[in-house]
Specification:
Layout lengths: L7 E3 L5 E3 L7 E7 L8 H12 L4 E7 L11 H12 L18 H9 L10 H9 L14 E4 L5 E5 L5 H11 L1
Parallel strand pairs: 3-4
Antiparallel strand pairs: 1-2, 3-5, 5-6
């Protein structure tokens, strides 16, 4: 079985690098967007990065414009937004697709390994998204700020759907670090 860490990714500068370069004890992978109602999660992600990086957590952001065009900027504009608006110091890589025929290989792998738990138990957010985006393929990313926690071997430990905040993840991080 392929590890997520064996899959190359592209930096915001356009360089292909192995995801292994970003690996640590744990890696949190997140599809991000700068014009989404969930964009303030950047603040929580940065707080996790600052609180847990020295304990072995790596966070890697992947901008995606597939959800109502909420990440329209260029890679340079996205980098500037992250730095100036949220003082992001964790890596935010090049813009990608997370679903469909042009999905980045990493996300095709993550979706297959952890199809998710998107359902009515997510309440109002679930109801709203189901009116905005019709039914998706099993395992598809449903919105910005879906998160995957990987172990040191690149295996998905947990998939967190968009309404799960970085603060909600702390308990799992403390358990695995």
């Amino acid at each position: 079985m392929t590890s997520a860490y064996d899959i190359p990714v592209t930096t915001a500068e356009g360089t292909s690098v192995p995801l292994r370069d970003y690996a640590g004890t744990l890696t949190l992978i997140v599809n991000v967007a700068s014009k989404c109602g969930l964009t303030p999660q950047y603040e929580g992600l940065e707080a996790l990065h600052r609180d847990y990086a020295d304990k072995g957590l790596r966070i890697v952001g992947f901008p995606c414009n597939q959800f109502l065009g909420q990440e329209p900027g260029t890679d340079d504009e996205i980098q500037e937004f992250c730095r100036l608006t949220y003082d992001v110091t964790f890596p935010v890589l090049g813009k990608i697709d997370v679903n469909g025929p042009d999905a980045a290989p990493l996300y095709a792998h993550l979706r297959a390994e952890a199809p998710g738990d998107w359902g009515p138990h997510h309440g109002e957010f679930y109801d709203k998204l189901n009116t905005i985006t019709p039914a998706t393929e099993p395992g598809d990313i449903v919105w910005n700020f879906t998160k995957f926690l990987l172990d040191d071997q690149g295996t998905v430990l947990t998939r967190y759907e968009p309404p799960v905040t970085p603060d909600d993840i702390k308990k799992d991080l403390q358990h695995h670090l």
